[in-house]
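Example 9 (inverse folding). The structure is encoded as follows.
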């Protein structure tokens, strides 16, 4: 088992762990097939190179795509066949870049301000949704009333047309 000679601050433990796990998996899978053991060895070596910041074949980003490129394998080998190694890689990356417990005051204030703004925007969105639903109901009621008025108007026009065709004899002046 070899340990990396060049290490970035905070990545030595992750690289050593990746190397140790890789050695154990390669040894365990060595009996199952040399192809699997070679893939495991390539993946763990690539993990070590990425974690210490010394990539040979990839862009050096801490992603599965870069890990696959660094190992010289297709990405589906990590996402379908060696999922445990993929999960180990993500865990090591997460452990390598811890989230700070304490934010600086300016960042905390900015985060609080963003949360307040988000709450205002969500409240406004909910209010606008309610108004849109109310307007939809109003439009629906007005459409019904409009159709009823059109029916009544058509009936009135028909009555007027009937009355217009019959002469009103009561309004005529009698002839002398």
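The amino acid assigned to each position is listed next.
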């Amino acid at each position: 088992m070899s340990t990396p000679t060049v290490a970035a601050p905070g990545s030595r433990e992750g690289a050593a762990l990746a190397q140790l796990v890789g050695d154990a998996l390669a040894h365990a899978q060595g009996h199952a097939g040399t192809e699997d053991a070679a893939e495991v060895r390539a993946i763990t070596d690539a993990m070590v190179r990425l974690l210490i910041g010394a990539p040979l074949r990839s862009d050096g980003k801490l992603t599965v795509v870069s890990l696959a490129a660094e190992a010289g394998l297709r990405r589906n080998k990590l996402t379908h066949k060696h999922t445990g190694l993929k999960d180990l890689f993500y865990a090591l990356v997460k452990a390598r870049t811890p989230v700070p417990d304490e934010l600086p005051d300016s960042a905390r204030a900015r985060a609080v301000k963003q949360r307040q703004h988000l709450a205002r925007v969500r409240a406004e969105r909910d209010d606008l949704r309610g108004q849109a639903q109310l307007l939809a109901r109003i439009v629906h009621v007005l459409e019904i009333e409009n159709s009823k008025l059109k029916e009544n108007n058509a009936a009135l026009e028909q009555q007027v047309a009937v009355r217009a065709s019959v002469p009103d004899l009561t309004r005529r002046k009698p002839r002398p």
